[in-house]
Amino acid sequence: MAAPLEKHRTMQDIVYGAIKERVLNADYQPGQRLMTADLASEFGMSRMPVREALQRLEAATGLVTLIPHRGAVVNGISVGDLREIFELRAVLEGLAAQMAMPNMTPELLSQMKETNAQIGRCNIEDDEEIFVSLNYEFHRPIWESCNAPRLNSILHTLYEASRGYRYKSIKVPGRLTNVVQEHQEIIDAFERNDVEGIERTVRGHYRHTLNSLQNGPGKPTDVPTP
Which of 42, 74, 106 is the endpoint of a domain? Predict the structure, then answer.
């Protein structure tokens, strides 16, 4: 039966929300194929809004991986991948922050403060796409200020690899508040010109994220990502 359409929501919004909830509730299992044609038929709409919803879901949450011209696959979470990604990020992001220290201007720090304030105003139940964008904008000045193109490239690769994990971590109760506080501690260390403290603070930020993922609701098991 087709899902009823709500006038204030687009068809893409409805499909996006429905698929997201089914993945998070384990109605769709890791490795399961989501066919565009089947979803279009179920929701009683054309394939276009379904394709757009799947593209949006991949970009915003990392919960699925698109298959060109076919649909998507539900991503699993591997404990090994999770630990590797965030341990690498902890070390390399700490190094990048140390290297960025001489180049962090008051203007960049002001920009980071404003971005962090916007993150604090997010309603994570509805604003995951906004959070993902703002979180990227918070960390980007640090990456760019380290003046190390190879390191910058590696950090962007690891950031992309952690999309699905990052989305799940922010769903852990209280984690959004902690993220805002940890971001502020990073800003404070930059303002103090605390070279040793900034590395310690940044490392702690990513290890806290890892800990919340490993111990929070819906903690991962050794399920490989397709």
Answer: 74
